Amino acid sequence: MSEKTILVWFRNDLRIHDNEILSEAVRKADKVLPVFIFDPFYFKTSATGALKTGSFRARFLLQSVADLRKNLQAFGADLIIRTGEPAEVLTELAEQYHINEVYHHREVAPDETEVSERVEAALWKMQLNLKHFIGHTMYHKEDLPFPIKDIPDSFITFKKKVERDSTVRPCTVSPDHVTTPEITDAGEIPTLVELGVPEPIDDPRAVNTFTGGETAALNQLHQYLANNQQNNQGKNRVVQSSGLSPWLALGCISPRQVYWEVVNHQRENHLHGAEPLMLELLWRDYFRFMFKKHGQKFFRSEGFNSEAPDVATNQNDLFEHWKHGETGVPYIDAAMHELNATGYISNYSRQAVATYLTKDLQVDWTKGALYFEEKLIDYSPASNWGNWAFVAGVGNDTKSNRYFNAAKPTVQLESKSDFITTWLATDEGASTIPA
Ligand code: FAD
């Protein structure tokens, strides 16, 4: 009988732990061919000069792919790296390595699902199957107490039912070893210049440093757990934000692994109070499931409403000021400077700048979402477009009000003077602040 070889196509699942496609391929096949493809679509520059993937995220991706390759090598394998259109690359590799089946994780955003469809059609012509797995959420789609089409649009109802009727599956067992066919040309990781992306300049004011890859993701999680234990001596509570979003976005760590490590850490150390973190992970799941349910609606100015919100006649000028942190509003400008200089801002800042853009300046929210798409190091389609639609008041859930009160100007909500001084002090933007 001939050998069975499965090609594992890594996309936003750049990890070995709790990676069902890898474990399943190792279990089912004699040999496994791990592949990552840099698709030029994600490194385009628009007519206005905006990048689809900004410098900080592109560098983070290169680091993550390098780390995955290193980790796979430690398992006796390697990672084939190519740049090109996935359907073309995968069919070529399938032919070269006599592949029997291709595994990948299903995505939910339209661009990503279209790529999968093109790959599926191309493989089908070779009579090869593209097998879809679901591996990006904390709760597995099949364990939800409702089919995707019936998921409640209200987050509160979704949360209540999921927490009552579903459980988080255990992590998959990682393979001990990954056997590949003989790889003659594994390929090099492209440089940022080759991808058409400028090198990022690290700003010494940045509070967080993010290095891509599963190794750094696990360090971040363990550091987070250790810090919480230290900071909460006597209080026995797990608080603070985890700073895990860039790694979760690229799948360098799974939300399920975060869940179980936090639960086990709490048990072992007699801690409690991880609910805020679990709640945030549930918001992440919710937006992904909503994307699966509603798709393109999240990209329209009118969103789920019949009409788009009113916009200012000079919205293009206002948007330019907002982008460059030149609105004259200290907190907003400081946050935008931080975003432009580092690719990362806190959830509080995201809500503040998004609310300010949409409610105070009355600029079309999709402009802001597109700008975040370029800049954020943790950009993830469902989390970004879902949150923006929510802030703009055109989301699918009109009941959950967890955002700033639009009736009050955002400006008055926070002083945060150290933050403002840091991000405006040495910056040209500071000159626009009224005395
Ligand atoms: P924690 O508080 O530690 O939460 C744990 C994880 O839960 C996060 O890492 C993240 O994966 C998830 N999470 C937390 N809050 C949310 C939320 N509101 N919606 C969805 N998932 C959440 N998050 C992204 O990961 N990618 C984005 O592109 C993104 N765009 C956003 C745009 C706007 C306008 C707003 C208001 C929020 C956006 N968020 C996005 C959500 C949130 O701001 C970040 O996930 C959070 O700041 C990351 O910090 P953390 O890892 O310390 O989060």
Describe what you observe in this structure.
- The chain has 435 residues and is of the alpha/beta class.
- The protein has helices at 20-28, 55-74, 86-96, 110-125, 155-165, 192-195, 214-231, 245-250, 255-269, 275-294, 315-323, 330-342, 347-360, 365-375, 381-392, 417-425; strands spanning 5-10, 31-38, 80-83, 101-105, 129-133.
- Strand 1, helix 1 (20-28) and strand 2 (31-38) form a beta-alpha-beta unit.
- Helix 3 (86-96) runs parallel beside helix 4 (110-125), helix 12 (330-342) packs across helix 13 and helix 12 crosses helix 16 (417-425).
- The longest helix is centred in the first third of the chain and has 20 residues, at 55-74.
- The protein is globular.
- The termini are far apart.
- 44% of the residues are buried.
- Residues 409-413 and 427-435 have low confidence and may be disordered.
Bound molecules: flavin-adenine dinucleotide
In total, the number of strands is 5
End-to-end CA span = 80 Å
Q: Tell me, briefly, the overall form.
A: globular
Helix/strand order: EHEHEHEHEHHHHHHHHHHHH
Please bin the fraction of helical residues: 40-55%
Count of DSSP helices? 16
- Return the average pLDDT rounded to an integer: 90
Structural class by SSE content: alpha/beta
Q: Record the strand order, biggest sheet.
A: 3-2-1-4-5
β-strand percent reads 5-15%
**Most strands sheet:** 5 strands, parallel
> What Rg is obtained from the alpha carbons, in whole angstroms?
22 Å
Low-confidence stretches: 409-413, 427-435
